[in-house]
Amino acid sequence: MSEFEDIKLPDNIEEVTNRAISRGEEYMKKRSKKNRNLVMAVSLALVVLMGAATPVLAEKVILSNKVFEQLKSDDSISEKQFMLKGGQYKYAQAVNQEIKNNGITMKITEVACDGANIFISYAITMDEPFSHANMLAVVTQNKKMRVDFCDEQFTEANTGGIEGKFIDEFNFVGMDEIDLAPLTARGLKVPDKFNLEIEIGDIIENPGYTDKKVPGPWKFKLEVTKNTSEAKEVKKELVDGEVKFNKMTVTPTTTDIEVTIPNSYPSGVIVTAYDDKGNKLQPTYAQAISKNEKEYVKLGKYSAVSEGSKFVTIKLVNKNDPELKVLNEFKVPIE
């Protein structure tokens, strides 16, 4: 193998070549005619030397500190992120903490809390090109999050990944979220101000292919201010047959619905919700948060209601019934 095979040629190869040839010709005018056949050799040598002297560098991109706003402007992302669709990003507080480890600078730019969720935005810069297989996320491992008003630790299982977009092979912007509904359903109150600790252990490069692990950690400690100016909590004693409606929390981002269901109900029962604008609220998950011998409490998280909605219709449906029979129904006003 030639020692020159590993040398990278510059992007502006044509301009460099022409400049090198001109220099070679000026030089050869002073030489004898028999040496003119060396012009191209001299020129090509100059191309290689000039190329080696001016390596191809990544263009430095200044990432915005308003990542939520940047992601909101991208329809392919904002249509999938409830937080961006709901406009909660407008209430985000600036953070701008950054940690660099193993060639990766991770910066938390903003944080927002609506009482039911915490949203965190990131700007990530890599010193070397990052293989990401066109993914819309940065895959993390050993991620831990903790709030100081609760001993429970959040992990990847209940926080999700850092979803967003790669600006280029060196830069990424994205967001992460923590669902607080399982805590509030147990009676925990989210204080007006609290501390949030985040530790990301590793970042996985080229997931599903090389699965190269870039070790951290990247540790942050943030002071978070809860903003519930547009959040509404509805608690009413509504009963339909053996089913009870307990609570609904409506924020610009999500809708949390809690109902009590008897154990005698079929295992295929699901809770659906629609606002009075005809919009079906899209579920993200549901879980039983408590249970006894007679009944269990089911908590579901859904997308936000349409702007200006006055009430939400909640239906319990047996998904195993070919006719999708409605077992119970509640019409809950948004107050």
Task: Provide a quick synopsis of the model.
The chain is 16% helix and 45% strand. The protein has 335 residues and is an alpha+beta fold.
What percent of residues are in strands?
A: 35-45%
| Percent range of helical residues | 10-25%
**SSE-based structural type:** alpha+beta
N-to-C CA distance: 76 Å
Shape: elongated
Order of secondary-structure elements? HHHHHEEEEEHEEHEEEEEEEEEE
- Biggest pleated sheet: 9 strands, antiparallel
Mean pLDDT equals: 78
List unreliable stretches of 5+ residues.
1-10, 16-58
In DSSP terms, counting alpha (H) and pi (I) runs of 4 or more, how many helices?
7
What does this structure look like?
The chain is of the alpha+beta class and about 325 residues long. About 15% of the residues lie in helices and about 45% in strands. It contains seven helices and 17 strands. The protein has helices spanning about 15-30, 40-55, 65-70, 75-80, 80-85, 155-160, 180-185, and strands spanning about 95-100, 105-115, 115-125, 135-145, 155, 160-165, 170-180, 195-205, 210-225, 230-240, 245-250, 255-260, 270-275, 285-290, 295-305, 310-320, 325-335. The strands form three sheets. Strands 1, 2, 3, 4, 5, 6, 7, 8 and 9 form a nine-stranded antiparallel sheet that branches. Strand 11 and strand 12 form a beta hairpin. Helix 1 crosses helix 2 (about 40-55). The longest helix has 17 residues, at about 15-30. It is elongated, with a radius of gyration of 29 Å. About 30% of the residues are buried. The model is unreliable at about 1-10 and about 15-60 (pLDDT under 50).
